[in-house]
């Protein structure tokens, strides 16, 4: 079988997986909404169930498509999706595509910054812990990292708010702008303080797996024959790290980060909810609580693609790593 044929078959398999994942995600969300006790009409009027009744309520139910079955909703969404339309949010009274575009900007900034920062800090700390595994401080930091891996991110966020936002008043409690001020009127520099606490909280939850995995990988590579040979020839620690450890430990850390896109996304949802951060995660929560089917399906569709891209990149890197290790 030629290389082009193998590449084409892999692409077809990946696309098939993506389609299956999207279908399963849409089916699950639609069924959960159908079984949800939330009244979309009541949520449409901010919890006032008596705001509309009688014939007007029936008209509103038909207008919002709430009289459709779960299967009909899923078919309508799929049909609209094939024509490039994600639907219309009856909670925000805007097209779903516009809402996702507006809210995803802040989420992308937060997740990209947290992903890059956690990878750099996590890999650096894991490298140091792996280079000196028998040191007392190394064991202490390893146990601290294990604790970090067990602490939920929402608890970390609440602690940071109580200490740095309420007691010390160093950073804002939440949001991306002061009350009554449009975020679009502020510069990125003026918004930066609002990103600090959410960024630290998200990094806290992402760093621990990278630190622990990098530490074990560095210890494993340090005991390999080629590193032992380099030490016998008097190479310094800096040379060993540069020519041996970085080549064999950095890519696995990157694979973990890419494969953890689902944890990054779920962590962002929690952090945005805790800090009242106007991103796609908070919008997803509001869509679920209000029973906004078009918005919830549209965000789920985009999130599924995001996670698939991360898993695909991680798979490509891991295959490249296994191939390089075999030579």
TrEMBL record:
InterPro entries: MetI-like (IPR000515), MetI-like_sf (IPR035906)
GO cellular component: plasma membrane
Subcellular location: Cell membrane
Transmembrane segments: 12-35, 108-132, 153-173, 193-212, 250-275, 295-317
Ranges of residues in domain ABC transmembrane type-1: 104-318
Keywords: Cell membrane, Membrane, Transmembrane, Transmembrane helix, Transport
Gene3D superfamilies listed in its UniProt record: MetI-like
Membrane topology, as annotated: Multi-pass membrane protein
Any single biological process term in GO: transmembrane transport
Family the entry assigns: Belongs to the binding-protein-dependent transport system permease family.
Protein name (record): ABC transporter permease
Organism name: Aliivibrio finisterrensis
